[in-house]
Amino acid sequence: MGVFLYDEAPDGSVRELTQSWLRSSHRAVVPERSRQNQPWHPHNRVEPLTPNKAEELQIEVIPVCNLFHQGHRMRLELSNCDSLVENSSSYKRTLLIPARNTVIQGRGKSRIILPVIPR
User: Fold this and answer.
1) Among 78, 98, 105, 114, which is most buried by a count of CB atoms within 10 Å?
2) In the predicted model, what is the mean pLDDT of residues 14-28?
3) What gap in Å lies between CA 47 and CA 26, rounded to an integer?
């Protein structure tokens, strides 16, 4: 799963701020080695996903600093291939067979933790 964070201008143009990747089958986390907002993945075993079963993927987004100007907004893209926003003409498919990702929304489900530093 790829996570891409953008600064989107009022005209729709985007600037990538950061990106991160995690192979879903390597989603195991070692709490004792993890830090706040930095899950530690051992990558020492493969745990295939089960179709139609919800699984939590803890993906650290590489820290970045950005000042969002008036009218700009944050854009979050989740993908199983390279960003189509940045690479609309040539992207790499990560799977030979297309995959379908389901993001579970609602309270206590999907979430992103973004610290805000006041000016």
Assistant:
1) 78
2) 92
3) 6
Separation of alpha carbons 49 and 99, rounded Å: 12
Question: Of 64, 59, 46, nearest to 103 (Cα)?
Answer: 59
Q: Average pLDDT of 10-15? A: 94
Neighbours of 30 (CB within 10 A): 11
Say if residues 22 and 88 touch (Cβ distance below 8 Å): no
pLDDT of residue 69: 95
36: pLDDT confidence band, cut at 50, 70 and 90?
confident
Fold of 1-119: Jelly Rolls (2.60.120)
- Would the pTM count as exceeding 0.85? no
Question: What's the distance, CA 85 to chain centroid?
Answer: 14
CA-closest candidate to residue 23, choices 77, 61, 80: 80
Write out the DSSP string of 44-62: -S--PPPTT-------PPP
Please, are residues 74 and 7 in contact by the beta-carbon 8 Å criterion?
yes
